[in-house]
Amino acid sequence: MSRVAQELLAEQFEVHRPHLRAVAYRMLGSLAEADDAVQETWIRLSRSDTRQVQNLPGWLTTVVGRVCLDMLRSRAARREDPMQERLPDPVVSRDGQLDPEAEALLADSVGLALLVVLESLNPAERLALVLHDSFGVPFEDIAAILERSPAAAKQLASRARRRVQARASAPERDLPRQRRVVEAFLAAARRGDFEALVGVLHPDVLLRADRGATLTKIRGAAAVAKQAITFARFAYASEPVLVNGAAGLLSTTDGQPVALMAFAISGGTVSAIDIIADPDRLRRLLA
Predict the structure, then answer these.
(1) Closest Cα to residue 277, out of 264, 249, 258, 263?
(2) What is d(CA 127, CA 140) in angstroms, rounded to the nearest whole number?
(3) What is the reported pLDDT for 96?
(4) How does pLDDT run across 134-193, given as a tens digit for each residue?
(5) CATH number given to 175-286
(6) Domain locations in the chain?
(7) How many CB atoms lie within 10 A of CB 223?
(8) Per-residue pLDDT at 105
(9) What pLDDT score does 254 carry?
(10) Range 124-141 burial, b when 16+ CB lie within 10 A, else e
(11) Which CATH number is associated with domain 3-81+92-167?
């Protein structure tokens, strides 16, 4: 390939990079791994004869999907025993507005709670669901990646969809309403008002706290309210942020991030709270 042709190919690839990163992020739940997958896609593109490629965006989406599938399978193979769980990487905006790159990354609004549910799927299910439902990839193309029939690929997506719908309630999309619920939660935590906290929490609310070495899970309004009151001191140093496009809170001590809280709001109550309380990871994510 000539230098001019290589430069032209690189320019075309850059046009599609935001889309490819969005696919990889939805597939992997890791910003760093998503970047690795996109880079590997470029390497494969630069080494391929694309003269017969009629649909470059579709070709690239298929390739990044295959790369992500390999990464998910490799990740699963390393988990000979239950490896420590961790929350997916969030996309955080501290100024209340998502920049264009973040907006592209969160195509169709992928909340942190949904990413957690996607982590429960096996690699083939995740690929079939993400590529078809989020990015409109035909089952024929998905089948080619999985080396299965289109009917089998469709069945995988259907099974994954049922599992996701069973575990993830429909989120509140209206940001002002989300913020009102989060503000009510924050105010009750600051007052140490147990009854008010229980009132703003869904009865089956799930709290997941990722401290780096451990992932703690607490379920139920009463148990989560008690936990919120225990750590109410963080509420006094909290600022509103967007976490994957939804209302969240960032707690700081001496100007340094110590905890990031992502809320899933459904039916006017908090249905899930995901907390990252690993300062080193937060510094990398917020850099």
Answers:
(1) 258
(2) 13
(3) 57
(4) 899 999 999 999 999 999 999 999 999 999 888 766 677 888 999 999 999 999 998 999
(5) 3.10.450.50
(6) 3-81+92-167, 175-286
(7) 13
(8) 61
(9) 85
(10) bbbbbbbbbeebebebeb
(11) 1.20.140
